[in-house]
């Protein structure tokens, strides 16, 4: 295209050959994922079976949704510590209201909406009151968890017929299983991807992470976008709670303790920089799959104890963080 | 009066007083302290004892936050410390011997010191953001603790070790004596040496500090190390209280409580000026709050809700926008004879960047 | 020179901007015509940025009118200004490095498809805008993968996407090399020929002469005059910028007595071939006890960079340093302090004051840092030290417990001086110690410097005000284009001579 263009003075300019660093971290995650699959496949029988891979998605659908929301917030340079608690709140709201006899059509929007409202509160605190994201969402985390106990301290089983029917919907094709939860999670991932890459809101999320002042000077709607990023994360946490309620058929105030750490770890392992501006929703999904796969491998190994999961996640985090740091140092 | 209102300890102390009054109203004997077997008993003494581990962790956290950092790993370090000490006691033939107990304590503290050094290395040498650098150990630390205990809740009987958590010394709980003692020593050292000032300088303006010859990197490294060490000591107190090393639940969320204590105490998370006395009051507020909830007959599970309200109120009161509002509402215009903050053209430059 | 008679697109009359008690701009007139490149000249604090910010709505003038295209306007901010055809490109590229080139150019005016971004159209349009500027870069590459020069051009490209009548370039060339500057100028001329009015700020005189048609000179917030570039020789321009006619200057009393130094003395600090890539070319310099060495040169000439290498604030990559004859390496400010070398940065706010600490703490900071945290200075000694400096330097308010952020700029500067004097340095490097402070404080600091030298301290004095440098220096090193171009005797140097050297006319 550009070869025949009359490049008037471009000879004088050193235009570097393009090597897009943006994809490097995600590529790294992908390689790790592939290596783990190969390792698992070569060590254990049936590891690469459709059932195992399907389960990977089914067991982690809620975490995928959380990670998508977290990606938005982290891309703006913020953080959301509340997602685990908000997820629990959503399961409790769902179970309580269903028990009270309300129809799922009413309950589901309320459960997801609870997350939206908390997210909105975070956004307002962070942007308009300049409370650090860490503190604002920490307050939200306590608030949601406390609210859970006020609503229902005990675990509540869900027996609403239509909700259970929705939850147990499974499509099977040739050994592969797709639950309603996975379907919803994949839709969220798709929506997250489209919003981030094909709307001005999405690009502004990236721009804020790249430099809030620059984004302001470029005339982009910084305030609205920042608040909205927390709303997205809150909503995703609410939806994640719904998925978890479908998965566990219950609502319990102690679910999702420290799940925000899993979500953050997934996002970081998925190649998103905690400083904001760089990363992809699909990377976060890969990050969740890596976390899930560590769990799966340790289960398959049998002799390895469960705590190795945490240690391996920590080591992976370390490797990715140090690599990202090295990349950013070489750039400057 | 306004001077009193402006004092940095006013709001935290007010919160503490309100809580104590609420408790006394609900249960008039709340503040009563009795002597039983030569030991002091009563709710206030209990609060002191339960504050102890939190106070130690919050102490380290305050120093870390002063340098613009944060240490998320303290909860995991608490778990590791308990796991090391109790595993050593459990594996020794004679857990009651003072030598064994001292070795256990020494091993635990040494390992926690190493963990602190590790955090400090990531932050000050590799230059990784504190929040993520310590997130690594926060995640992996509990795994390490479980590795040490073999995934079981290790329980032991060791008289001397148990004393750490639930013993009394001169009528006072040993845990409280240790924690408040360490706190007093550190507070003394920080304020009597130049450490406090140099930490604040590093937190407020790292570039200016470097040009002034302050060894900012070493200081940063030191505070993470100290934070690890104090968390380790807190872990010993917690495990000695229950005599069980529960790698999953020991010190769970103590990092958040500690950060909260620091914030309630009036130290901003953005670093710089810190006050340890505020942290002390903050830790007492949290411990009293937990106590209050039970006294008032509310399920302790709802405590987080109250914590959330406290955080929201305190942080909003501290937020720049709120302060502007409050300032413009309460402050009368000062006479212009006093030197005003320098309003130079370049002070508005930030807007254009 | 083009279209001198065309009606002005921007007409600012009697503009004043105040930041009490400072009056940053005082009744300045400024006129910008379509199809011209107009340079805005002046030293630091002359009011260039303030004038630009008054135009783009970041500052609101306390007096005066701004006409854009004949309509009176007060913009609410850069976005509003841009909507009315006045776009600004800053020294630091204010774009997002993590986005693609296409996005950086098009966001805000992006083509849409079904409510979302129309990426192919966006890339196409961006490519055509880029091509118009003679840039053939891939619009879908990320901005951060390009050199600063290209980023700067992309910023200009973005400014021209919307209907741009006025383009403000605030020091766009400060980090570009010669080829890159040449390309930028090509683009600027092309835009000018399309009828865009360009306001250009640069500290490089040769660039101004190469590209500008007219210039407006400001000094101390006031208008000096508007000139056609061709009619104003460089030396005269420098005089306008620095102020004071020759006669006044030569009549000015010299503060410094020019005593002869012993010929055989060993230099306190001797550097040979010291340099740092992209910062300052290798230079030699000897500094002796009891001597004030002035560094003269315009902003960006390398005077600050040189000072930073002398004091370990930046690490040199070539050259040798000898302190009292001993070869050593000053890797950190702390190491330099160990050799009795002190440095106050020109960036008082960013690298000087610790604004959340008190006057007392700021004064003892360096001394205490050198002693280490374990050996605190006794409180009594601190109080005496602080009280003596407050008294000696006239720091106001005279309250050791006042927070530094509540002091005026001049008093903050005195506190910084006190911080270094407290360490009893042998060599004191002062980078613009008198910038932005009032006349009285300025004179006090000059006097202090002279006294310190008389007591045997070696001082390096950097100032944008040539007059000041001439007045107090025994020796003057002249900097131009990141090089030390001359070293002259302060006693015999005349304003003319130095101005010539700075402007590039004289011989080194």
Automatic annotation (TrEMBL), chain A:
It is a multi-pass membrane protein. This is Simple sugar transport system permease protein. InterPro entries: ABC_transp_permease. Keywords: Cell membrane, Membrane, Sugar transport, Transmembrane, Transmembrane helix, Transport. The chain crosses the membrane at residues 23-44, 56-75, 82-100, 106-128, 135-158, 178-198, 227-247, 280-300, 306-323. PANTHER family: ABC TRANSPORTER PERMEASE PROTEIN YPHD-RELATED-RELATED, INNER MEMBRANE ABC TRANSPORTER PERMEASE PROTEIN YJFF. NCBIfam families: PRK11618.1. Coiled coil: none annotated. It comes from Promicromonospora iranensis. It is found in: Cell membrane. The keyword Transmembrane applies. The lineage of its organism: Bacteria, Bacillati, Actinomycetota, Actinomycetes, Micrococcales.
Automatic annotation (TrEMBL), chain B:
The chain crosses the membrane at residues 47-65, 72-90, 102-128, 135-156, 168-190, 219-238, 250-269, 295-317. It is found in: Cell membrane. It is a multi-pass membrane protein. Its main location: membrane. It comes from the Bacteria. Residues 325-353 are annotated as: Disordered. It holds the Pfam family BPD_transp_2. Keywords: Cell membrane, Membrane, Sugar transport, Transmembrane, Transmembrane helix, Transport. This is Simple sugar transport system permease protein. The lineage of its organism: Bacteria, Bacillati, Actinomycetota, Actinomycetes, Micrococcales.
From TrEMBL, chain C:
Keywords: ATP-binding, Nucleotide-binding, Repeat, Sugar transport, Transport. Transmembrane segments: none annotated. GO terms for molecular function: ATP binding. SUPFAM superfamilies: P-loop containing nucleoside triphosphate hydrolases. Gene3D superfamilies: P-loop containing nucleotide triphosphate hydrolases. The keyword Nucleotide-binding applies. It holds the Pfam family ABC_tran. InterPro entries: AAA+_ATPase, ABC_carbohydrate_import_ATPase, ABC_transporter-like_ATP-bd, ABC_transporter-like_CS, P-loop_NTPase. Residues 10-245, 263-506 form the ABC transporter domain. PANTHER family: CARBOHYDRATE TRANSPORT ATP-BINDING PROTEIN MG119-RELATED, GALACTOFURANOSE TRANSPORTER ATP-BINDING PROTEIN YTFR. This is Simple sugar transport system ATP-binding protein. The lineage of its organism: Bacteria, Bacillati, Actinomycetota, Actinomycetes, Micrococcales.
